[in-house]
Amino acid sequence: MERFKKLDLFIYSLIIANIIAMILESHVALKLKYDSFFNLFEAISIGIFSLEYLFRLYLNFQEKKWKGVKNYVFSFFGLIDLLSILPFYVKEFVLLDGRFFRILRLFRLTRIFKLGRGSKSLKLFIKALSAVRNELFFTLFLSLLTILFSASAIYFLENEAQPEVFSSITASIWWATVSLATVGYGDVVPITVWGKVFAAIISLVGIGVVAIPTGIISASFVEEIHNAKKKN
């Protein structure tokens, strides 16, 4: 809405400031020196983001009553807005160990996605993903099956030669994943003849596994762009 442009600009500026603060806070020297400032800034930001979340709930209720609230809460940006503030309250009111707390702090990164709220291109992309979600779920299922098959096969081929590396099918999943994704870090490699042959085949299969969802998303995105241009 036109009257909320200044509010959106302020929120975007605050998000950028939060990202900069998060980057600076990762430096030990700066964190030790300005820890109280970082904590205060985080608390103020959470307060503002919380008010923004409640305000958007109110706007959606005014527009479409409880249906509008439900649509916002379960929308992409509704979930992003919630995830950007929820860890703070969980940390304050729930007893957590250090490891889980560090994982929660990762959710601060979701604030970056709030910058895309006004982007028409991002909205088109999300719409394109929604249009082919069934196809993407199928390709994900196919990918998981391929990873499991690859991990099982390489385990039986390499376990005897490298029992410490391919100690189980579970341990072999890392190799299968990076090989099918055509990343190939090289930290774990087969050394037997049949292991190498299988790895070569899987690498070629991996190109197709990556290409299928990429092609589906690209085609859907292009279609949504054409539809948007027709409407305009």
CATH class of the largest domain: Mainly Alpha
Low-confidence stretches: none
Instruction: Assign the CATH architecture of the largest domain.
Output: Up-down Bundle
Radius of gyration: 23 Å
Helix fraction?
Answer: over 70%
- Output the number of helix runs: 8
What summary fits the major beta sheet? none
Query: What is the CATH topology of the largest domain?
Result: Four Helix Bundle (Hemerythrin (Met), subunit A)
CATH superfamily of the largest domain: Voltage-gated potassium channels. Chain C
Number of domains: 2
Structural class: mainly alpha
Number of strands: 0
- Write the H/E string, N to C: HHHHHHHH
Beta-sheet strand percentage?
A: under 5%
Question: In angstroms, what separates the terminal alpha carbons?
Answer: 19 Å
Shape: extended
Overview of the molecule:
By secondary structure, this protein is mainly alpha-helical. The protein has two domains: 2-118, Four Helix Bundle (Hemerythrin (Met), subunit A); 133-231, Helix Hairpins (Orthogonal Bundle). The protein contains eight helices and no strands. It has helices at 5-25, 28-73, 76-93, 98-105, 120-131, 133-158, 169-180, 193-231. The chain starts with a helix and ends with a helix. The model has no long low-confidence stretch (mean pLDDT 84).
